[in-house]
């Protein structure tokens, strides 16, 4: 079977048998068996799900990552390869990312003797709940790695379009919870209590000024309250209000600034009105910060293999690939998948013709990146493999 046919088959199998984050057991077996069929070396690092594999030998080491998990969505796409599980769907195209990386692994395996180093393939679990990258880093997936690439499909682009940008490419994705505690009372006698709903409403309104009044107009941020729960009947002022929401920012500085301002607003508005406000902040994945030189290489190779390179603004979505970039330099990029429906939509359906060209792109980019790394290792002896694996930790 040609590589093209093999990875199209893999895509169909993955799409029909999606598994949720951290439960990718069959997916893991399937990926392993495809790698074994091609004689590609699997690294046994002890990850519960996900697979790490390599072709080539020695230093430098380039890593490429694909995510493998699906979402809890009942698929409604019109196609003859719909998910067999109505509780799960590959609605973000991670099945495509996996198939593309497998294709690249097969192509690189066929030229293993000529590679100027090693290419490591990270088939990463649990991107959707943002902890898979940390799991793979914990088991040592980045040890010795000099640079890393990853991609996400973009349904708004046609299948011959590629995009990336230097610096922030996705957002810091943080979750917030706010509790306002007042004093419950009879609704006819509000003066006997402290109404947390009125306090909560003031807080929600004041939060809207963080983006407009507290950060520079040139910086991007979103603060959204998405849940507001209080009370259970018409004639009782409740004791508490529970809120939930998200903060999206692009840089560590703005992230910290929003966090501080939010805390001040929540605590002081509540205190000023006789209640108590508490902010709980849960760090999500940081923003993907692409390294300019690797973005340049990714764009150059994309053009060479026939992609149209599109300039974009960073998105305020999240991507746990960011964790890898805290340890090693690299770039994250988008390739067009041309779907009529957005990511995470039950009718999301990619154009399968994107798979083989994308595999070929990874193949060419991997070779170009190894050449770049090889010459920088030789011109800078300080940047020895020992040093580069130390800097991973
Ligand atoms: Ni995704």
Q: What can you tell me about this protein's structure?
A:
The chain is α/β, with parallel strands linked by helices and 393 residues long. It is 35% helix and 23% strand. An eight-stranded mixed sheet has the order 1-2-4-3-5-16-6-15, with helices on both faces. A four-stranded antiparallel sheet has the order 10-12-8-13, with helices on one face. Helix 7 packs across helix 9. It is elongated, with a radius of gyration of 24 Å. The model is unreliable at 383-393 (pLDDT under 50). Nickel (II) ion binds at residues 92, 94, 127, 152.
Number of strands: 16
Task: Give me the side-by-side strand order of the main sheet.
Answer: 1-2-4-3-5-16-6-15
Shape: elongated
Report the mean per-residue pLDDT as an integer: 94
Distance between the termini: 42 Å
Summarize this entry quickly.
This protein is of the alpha/beta class. Helix content is 35%, strand content 23%. A hairpin with a 7-residue loop joins strand 1 and strand 2 (51-56).
Key terms:
393 residues; alpha/beta; 8-stranded mixed β-sheet; 4-stranded antiparallel β-sheet; 16 strands; disordered C terminus; binds nickel (II) ion
Spell out the blueprint of helices and strands.
Elements: H1 3-16, H2 25-37, E1 41-43, E2 51-56, E3 61-67, H3 94-110, E4 118-124, H4 132-138, E5 147-154, E6 161-163, E7 167-168, E8 172-181, E9 185-186, H5 196-214, E10 221-230, E11 236-237, E12 240-249, H6 252-272, E13 276-282, E14 289-290, H7 292-304, E15 308-310, H8 322-325, E16 330-336, H9 355-379, H10 385-390
Parallel strand pairs: 3-4, 3-5, 5-16, 6-15
Antiparallel strand pairs: 1-2, 2-4, 6-16, 7-14, 8-12, 8-13, 9-11, 10-12
Helix pairs in contact: 1-3, 3-9, 5-6, 7-9
Residues 92, 94, 127, 152 line the site of nickel (II) ion.
